[in-house]
Amino acid sequence: xxxxxxxxxxxxxxxxxxxxxxxxxxxxxxxxxxxxxxxxxxxxxxxxxxxxxxxxxxxxxxxxxxxxxxxxxxxxxxxxxxxxxxxxxxxxxxxxxxxxxxxxxxxxxxxxxxxxxxxxxxxxxxxxxxxxxxxxxxxxxxxxxxxxxxxxxxxxxxxxxxxxxxxxxxxxxxxxxxxxxxxxxxxxxxxxxxxxxxxxxxxxxxxxxxxxxxxxxxxxxxxxxxxxxxxxxxxxxxxxxxxxxxxxxxxxxxxxxxxxxxxxxxxxxxxxxxxxxxxxxxxxxxxxxxxxxxxxxxxxxxxxxxxxxxxxxxxxxxxxxxxxxxxxxxxxxxxxxxxxxxxxxxxxxxxxxxxxxxxxxxxxxxxxxxxxxxxxxxxxxxxxxxxxxxxxxxxxxxxxxxxxxxxxxxxxxxxxxxxxxxxxxxxxxxxxxxxxxxxxxxxxxxxxxxxxxxxxxxxxxxxxxxxxxxxxxxxxxxx
Length: 479
Known about the structure:
It contains 14 helices and 21 strands. By secondary structure, it is an alpha/beta fold. The protein folds into 2 domains: 3-246 and 451-470, Aldehyde Dehydrogenase, Chain A, domain 1 (3-Layer(aba) Sandwich); 250-433, Aldehyde Dehydrogenase, Chain A, domain 2 (3-Layer(aba) Sandwich), CATH 3.40.309.10. A 7-stranded mixed β-sheet has the order 13-14-15-12-11-17-18, sandwiched between helices. Strands 8-7-6-9-10-20 form a 6-stranded mixed β-sheet, sandwiched between helices. The protein is globular and about 80 Å long.
């Protein structure tokens, strides 16, 4: 495939290509251009030209176009889902569901656009009025990761477009194909040329050029904390606005009075979804001692029942996207084993027919984990969960907050007062009590501490692409 710039397919100026591989087999699926600063400049200038017109489009028309794009996503969900399946390796049904759920978010952002308004505070003297309005921040650079490449791009794109901004998107090197196809679909659905541009390449080759370019006014990034810090430092040179959704190391607390079966089911489902490749998954669990053994048994039973689909087969989980992600799971598992932890299930790379060509690691439970183990200190982004016994809920809360990250937290406790107190005490942007549902499209999503800056989704996401402007009006009052 090619890059999509100013409503048309485009090759890289220097002609370089990057291979896109199937994580199930390691074989090449396609290739995309390896862009450079020249390509970044071309895409940004196309977005800048488009924004001069797009920002003037009436909100009701922006809403109509965005809803048409959402409907086009649904109509092409099977096709784009196949592309996503091939580049990510996640089971096909889940890939197609991601497309449909992302379309829902576009609709929600569109509806939030209709609720935007200016205000005229009362209290001015005769012949004087003050209007507080909001304008689009400017051209946006949106950088999305591999794990949910469509959904996490729509977090940014849907909010930016409805606010009147235009976008240059850079998908992850592992998963560019679905994003490129969506850009074409949106253009065909009526989005004007230059409003949604997609460039491909490496972070060094084109990512840095996008961030450092003087025209964009905002960077929206989802990815690792180290990369987020580098982007923030580079963006400081031109004082770009930032939305950074970064790493997570989310903890669950299981109290002695918890519904153990419900807790085990929720933690297993959430901790191993997408083979553990998402930022707010359960990474570590603190369990009060009276129910520790019962919880381990219930969780292990569910984890052992999960199946890993071999290449061309079916199952609950797919492969990890590349060797780098796989190596983290191996390293953390080996580290825990060496330091005395019990591996209840999994713990080693899957091999054999259907697995040898890909990056397969099974659901892994690490019992009796201690604070010095990597699984309890570092983001895994793989199918590992560390579990630690604690004497009190207060100890669990202290250990939960003893982290650089603050993206999500989870509490299981029948005592509502105690559960709410724990939820309030967890230093995280989102907290769940007694179950783990998908994050809602209507409410803010983002992290505290080194898990990021800013919020996405709902009206909160749209507002992050707007600047306040105050206008002071003076006029003659008729006699």
